[in-house]
Amino acid sequence: MNKLMLRRSIRNALLIAAVLIGPAGFAAPVAAQVSGQRAAVSASTLTPKRMAASGAAVVGLIGAVTGGLALARSTGRAGGGNGRRGAITALAMGPLGLIIGALVVVTADGGLGTGNGIAGGYVAMVVGLIGIALGGLALARARRIA
To answer: For residue 71, what pLDDT band results from cuts at 50, 70 and 90?
Structure first.
């Protein structure tokens, strides 16, 4: 894979992450100005931190799925090619989900059920780690095959 394809793959991965997580960054200041006191949050209420955690989990999941597909492709079980592009995408999306999930967990004010997105942050961290592991394995196999 040449450098231009690598740049496009990473640029597309970051663009997808920005589209998924961007609205939560704009919603947080507005929600903070509405009231100084936190109201009770129901389980179905979508708060800005829950949106950020969900977006991070989706980004990590994209990394894990592309890493798994790249690993299957590198072993010759699915599709053509050696899976290098998918491995690089997984190695871009996995850490992004991991970092954003960790930021959500670190900046949370309360525990589970408070609307701070802690559960989603933990899920994003785990799925991001899985994406990193699968992407790394697929990249190592793609290098060995090539």
So the answer is: confident
